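Dear colleague,

Following up on yesterday's call, I've attached the two folding results inline so they're easy to grep. Please treat them as preliminary; we haven't cross-checked anything against experimental data yet. The first protein's sequence and structure tokens come first.
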Amino acid sequence: MEDLPPRHSHQGARKRGAGRLIRNLLLVVAIGAGAFVVAGLAYGDPRLVGLLDVRIGPGAGQPGATGGAQPPAEGRPDAPPPGLEEADAPLATPEQPPFASDSYRFLAENSDGTPVGYSPCRPLHYVINNDLVPADAQHLIPEAINTVSLATGIRFIYDGATTEQPSGQRAPYQPDSYGDRWAPLLISWTTPEAAPQLKGKVIGTGGSTHFSYDDGPKTFVTGSLELDAPQITEELRQPDGKLYATAVILHELGHVMGLEHVDDPRQLMFPEIGTPEGLAVGDLNGLHELGKAHCRKDL
């Protein structure tokens, strides 16, 4: 059995715009043989949000003779055949940050201290549920994804619109919906009624599922990002609304890729967005490190 280190919600908020406050919450929940780490950005008075610790069972494979992980047994229902679209080397090189900074943290790390991230050797497919996308906001997600792709070297592929609804127990492998591969990253313009994690003042949540074999290294295989469409619609009515909406999306994509909150208020991964200046140098250094994850032909 493997323990996922507990994550704590951040208390405290500061003013932004017309006296608006932003806080952040953090939850951890279990999905399948991996773990799903979710972070949410919210407006309103700060409150302590319950934290769920999880224990994760062994992965699908058994250790090989040399200690390496082997692919899931044939016909295993919770994982696809391994190595789909996995190249021998990273598909792109992340942009070098303008200068070094250690103002970043990771949501999860392997036993050797390396951060848990997506394999840079295969594309990360994503779909968008656009049913409730605010007017003139269709471009916000592709632009934010391009920014994160440049910072990490991860190549994203848009698979189109989806009718899939967000779920707190989303399966990382859905062959009936997406074929014999890991399910794509699901990005949803939604409501608290459809995504209960958005209840209250939460404006967005994002996280990824990591998968491992027994005591082997973990790698993210899919994720989800939920945006509160009514709240962001209101935000977009502000003079600087698109800048702040983009900041929310980038913040949640940072969590999807594997970034944790930091105590440095100059970074976008600070739990409260004070200025909509996008990714700061600490964020960029963290994303650059996440782009150095190992290829995983066994997943």
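Below is the second protein, in the same order (sequence, then structure):
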Amino acid sequence: MKRSYGFTLVELLVAIAIFAVLSALGWKVFDYVVKVKERNAEHEAKLSQLQEAYQQILRDTVQAVPLTANINGEIQPALVLQNGRFNFSKTGVTDPLNQGLAPDERIEYQYRADEKKLYRLKFRNLNQTGNDQPDSSVLLDNVEQFKIVVLNPSESDSWPDRAADTNNKDSFAMLPRGIKINLAVSGTEYEWLFSLLNTDYLQDKKDGR
């Protein structure tokens, strides 16, 4: 008589238990890998936005010029830093399609703490009326802290300098040597320094061009 071979019930239960344990471990590993990938993608997106914001501010400050603005009939200094408000004149606008675009414009950085966002506002002309609407874009999200000071060379939280003669129009056309931005984004603090000495523009003015 031939003896039949097979698995006993106990062996089947042990095999099922081992398979269940391995499956659970495999799922945990897979879930961990997915979460790490998502965190890395989120980190890369935040880093990319931070780099783009830095490059945008760098381009703006490199093109800052000592030109006053006429806003609704009131002469504004080339750069204004008062009570957290920061705006300045810049040049470098190109007009390849001959649309009559002005070569200079007014830039403002506006931090809205309630939204935790840093906005960039762009007025397409230094001469504005109260009805002019700026182009607005978000430079940074998740901004928990934002502060700008001017460097001339010492730090100051206001410009024009309080000691400047406000009746002297030349003082309105002056720029500090640079600005310093301190900000905190998603729990990480940064300090950015930018020069405001547009040497090409100053040289052109000196040469009468």
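For the second protein, one point worth flagging: The chain has one domain: 52-205.

Best wishes,
A.L.
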